[in-house]
Amino acid sequence: MKLVKTGLDIAATQGFAFLRDARVGIVCNQASLNSQGEHLIDLVVRHGNCKLKRIFAPEHGFRGTAQDMETVDDEVHDELEVVSLYGSGPESLHPDPEQLRGLDILLIDLPDIGTRYYTFSQTMAYCMLVAGEAGVKVIVLDRPNPIGGKQIEGSFLRYEFRSFCGIGPIANRHGMTLGELALLFQKGFGDGDGAIEPYSCELKVIRVEGWQREKYLDETSIPWVKPSPNMPSLDAAIVYPGTCLFEATNLSEGRGTDEAFLLIGAPFANGEDWLKTFSELGHPSEGASLKPTTFIPKYQKHTGETCQGIRIVVEDRTSLQSYRLGITLLVAAARAFPDKFQWRKDPYEFIKDVPAIDLLYGSSTLREVIDGRGSLDQ
After folding, report:
1. Angle at alpha carbon of residue 137, lines to 135 and 141, rounded to 5°
2. What is the pLDDT of residues 5-42, one digit of tens each?
3. pLDDT, tens digit, 9 for 90 and up, residues 204-262
């Protein structure tokens, strides 16, 4: 197994020398651990060479216990203020400039899972934006992309569909590390519909060492730690680029089970009918097997109800195109259960006037194809 050092591992080995005598804010959560399982906050406090002023927490909270899109309040941890960057409205997604005044450095360590709509990269970008305006230096502690840095899948995110699910046309499965995304956001790219405006700030990335891009997290020395309540395993992260699309429907993603995002279903679904329709679409699920199943979600859609549906078993992750698989399963579900399948109508990431599926996909194309029974190839 390849020895890989995260940015946090490297910073701790150096005694966080770059923080000496600085006034520091930290953006982190419960998974911000070094390879020995020690938390970033504890390590910074132990070295004692800076003034730790404030903690900022992303979606799911500092302790990582809140469900997705659940309001998280500010709290206190060991007498330190913990500012929630996922409150009750869109304004809460950005730190208040007043909360950054008086800081010299904003240190960010957020374990990501390599998918555009996993919101931690947007939290980082918004922090960079406000830090730049406040004259605060940003330091990102980099980590490997747990689902590898070679495979890339995605659809074009158009300007009018930008949101907390994506600030620009980054591939749904983007293959980058959080540090690489930070460098991209700092510089910006493109013009017009394909542009990302620079999120200008003074930025330093402490890069991961020893990671080879084709390696998944379990091929490194870094242990898997759940970054959020319903990301229970590396396999769940691998299929997430595709199965997250079901958040935009009335089918459950198995939230609260041990196989969230590997289980998709609803009380009205029938796994065998669904798989038959999937097969008729002619897009094989290379790299995964699909099996009819039943499960009971513990959170959100169909809580406590017996759901029928599909269980995804990852068999060859290097050949699995998880985003394509998710789209095909979505089309098949709409065709197999035409009288029951529905798009999500509730606001999604605080946006009321754009369907959730359009925010995830990046445009209205997928929804229009499914609603009009158009060609999957489109």
Report:
1. 155
2. 999 999 999 999 999 999 999 999 999 999 999 999 99
3. 999 999 999 999 999 999 999 999 999 999 999 999 999 999 999 999 999 999 999 99
Q: Radius of gyration (Cα) for the chain, nearest Å?
A: 21
Burial, 79: exposed, middle or buried (Cβ in 10 Å; 0-12, 13-18, 19+)? exposed
CA separation for the pair 90, 202 (Å, rounded): 25
d(CA 60, CA 32): 13
Answer whether 2's CB lies under 8 Å from 220's CB.
yes
Write out the H or E segment, with its range, that includes residue 23.
strand 23-27
Which tokens in the block code for residue 323? 């985003």
Does the global pTM surpass 0.85?
Answer: yes
The residue among 279, 324, 217, 100 whose CA lies nearest residue 108 is 100
Residue 48: C-alpha distances to residues 95, 99, 158, 256 (Å): 25, 22, 46, 39
Distance CA 168, CA 187 (A): 13
Looking at the chain, list the stretches that DSSP marks H as alpha helix, in order from N- to C-terminal side. Answer: 7-13, 40-47, 97-100, 120-134, 178-187, 234-243, 271-280, 322-336, 356-361, 365-371
How far apart are the C-alpha atoms of 165 and 116, rounded to whole Å? 7
Q: Which of 115, 92, 71, 67 is nearest to 360 (CA)?
A: 115
* DSSP H or E segment with residue 204: strand 203-206
Give the separation between CA 74 and CA 197, rounded to whole angstroms: 30
In this structure, what token pair is assigned to residue 236?
């769940």
Q: How far is residue 363's CA from residue 355's CA, in Å, rounded to a whole number?
A: 10
* Strand 288-295 relative to strand 307-314, pairing: antiparallel
